[in-house]
Specification:
Elements: E1 10-15, E2 21-26, E3 37-39, H1 42-52, H2 62-67, E4 69-77, E5 83-88, E6 100-103, H3 112-131, H4 140-156, H5 163-171, H6 191-233, H7 239-244
Antiparallel strand pairs: 1-2, 1-5, 2-3, 4-5, 4-6
Length: about 240
């Protein structure tokens, strides 16, 4: 979806010590404050897509994800490793090219990015209540309070909060004392999987038994076959020899 901010056409970003990209210059400095303004790189955005995927079963609206970001492509890499990013109109979700994603935070309270945060927070809480047996359902307020406390702690220690960190904090949130079992091998297996395993064990057992049985009787079978062969293939006695007897 095309966004109306025509003055936002490019930005320059550098990789910080925290391995996040931070904008230090932008084409629209009137509306955008570059102080601690982060931008999400293609690798990070792909990770976010992976984290969003489980929420599809709980009502994730992809259009809210798409509307929450401005798309940028790399136009040039400077000698100091800074990158010049050029605004593109491609969907950050549908584009085949790797794109940087700048959250739309022009209105921090009611803008598209704020709507996305509210949306995924509610869905994350809904999912956690569905998969974890809480004695009392988790609330949106409880999740938001923990996220704010973590952000305030970063601020007090002089660390800027990056958008990628903010999003992953929500999408990976699990209350203290609980955990999600994401190990594929640890998930309950279906009846078909169990049946296939049992059949495989049976086949393996039969193969071993047959091999052992064959080994135990092989010599006896070979001796009996040799005796039968000697009886049927013995040369007939000569008629002259028969008369001389």
């Amino acid at each position: 979806m095309s966004k109306p901010t025509t003055k936002l056409t490019w930005c320059n970003a550098r990789l910080g010590e925290d391995m996040n990209w931070w904008i230090h210059e932008i084409s629209d400095p009137v509306h955008w404050d570059v102080d601690c303004l982060g931008i999400i790189d293609p690798r990070q955005f792909q990770h976010l897509i992976d984290l969003l995927e489980p929420l599809s079963d709980y009502g994730l609206q992809n259009e809210l994800v798409d509307d929450a970001f401005y798309s940028f492509g790399i136009d040039n890499v400077e000698k100091d490793k800074a990158i010049h990013l050029k605004r593109v109109q491609d969907s950050v979700l549908e584009s085949e090219d790797p794109l940087f994603a700048l959250p739309d935070v022009l209105d921090e309270e009611k803008g598209p990015y704020a709507d996305l945060l509210d949306h995924i927070t509610k869905l994350r809480v809904k999912m956690l209540n569905d998969v974890i047996d809480f004695t009392q359902n988790l609330t949106v307020e409880e999740l938001e309070e923990e996220i704010r406390e973590a952000q305030n702690a970063d601020f007090m220690e002089g660390r800027a909060s990056h958008f990628f960190t903010e999003l992953t904090a929500i999408l990976e949130y699990v209350p203290e004392g609980f955990e999600l079992d994401e190990d594929e091998d640890a998930k309950p297996k279906s009846e078909d999987d169990e049946l296939e395993k049992d059949l495989a064990d049976v086949d393996a057992g039969n193969a071993v038994d047959e091999k052992i049985e064959e080994d135990d009787t092989m010599k006896w079978d070979e001796e009996e076959e040799e005796e039968e062969y000697e009886e049927t293939t013995a040369p007939p006695e000569d008629e002259g020899d028969e008369k001389n007897k």
